[in-house]
Write a structure and sequence with these properties.
Elements lengths: L1 H5 L8 E4 L18 H11 L10 H10 L2 H14 L2 E4 L9 H8 L8 E4 L9 H11 L6 E5 L11 E3 L6 H13 L2 H12 L7
Parallel strand pairs: 1-2, 1-4, 2-3, 4-5
Helix pairs in contact: 2-3, 4-7
Length: 203
């Protein structure tokens, strides 16, 4: 699936710029500390016949395995499947991990084939709201996308942003689905209505 998604021209792509903490992993989830994380790495390396698990940080592996919200992960997988979409990772996890690292971690939840890229950093420890626009400027024909994050970046991506309060819930799922399937024309309509009434609202 990854090769098929990567070979698409930008005008045919549907992209979820994905955050992890607060979207897939609730910030309060700490279950990993109750388990043998070293043993988990060995178990997963054997299960998936992938020794790369042994090279990864045990806290990251255990966080993905134990602390990613299973319902949020299921909703994301459903979106990717039904919308024929891909993941471009915008999470801060990209600052310390390679694409191969993240694909190995996402293999735990069968999301690896949908991860095509990491958003490149424009400078060391740059902010997502700086990096994503640079990526978009390098892909000017990519218009069907949505930024999903627990940091409110709506003012940077008007009509293309979905805010997650704690994890990817039903309302967030519905918003992402509409944007990927139908675009953001309806967001623009609401934005004009709000601004015409001088309301301080970020879409």
């Amino acid at each position: 699936a990854t090769d098929k998604l990567k070979d698409r021209p930008d005008e045919e792509r549907k992209v979820i710029f994905l955050d992890i903490d607060g979207v897939l992993q609730p910030t309060t989830a700490q279950e990993r500390f109750n388990h043998d994380m070293d043993a988990l790495k060995v178990e997963l390396a054997e299960k998936y016949q992938d020794e790369h698990f042994l090279e990864l940080d045990k806290y990251d592996v255990a966080a993905v395995y134990y602390d990613w919200d299973k319902t949020a992960v299921s909703r994301l997988y459903d979106l990717l499947w039904h919308c024929d979409a891909e993941i471009v990772l915008s999470s801060d996890w990209r600052q310390t991990k390679t694409l191969e690292d993240m694909r190995t971690l996402m293999k735990i939840h069968h999301l690896d084939e949908y991860l095509t890229e990491l958003v490149p950093e424009t400078h060391q420890w740059s902010w997502k709201y700086e990096d994503i626009p640079v990526y978009l400027s390098d892909h000017p024909k990519l218009t069907r996308y949505v930024v999903v994050d627990d940091m409110d970046m709506g003012k940077y991506f008007r009509g293309k942003f979905v805010y997650c309060d704690r994890f990817l819930g039903t309302n967030e799922y519905n918003q992402i689905y509409r944007m990927l399937k139908y675009g953001s024309w309806w967001e623009d309509t609401y934005y004009k209505m709000y601004t015409s009434h001088n309301l301080n609202v970020t879409i």
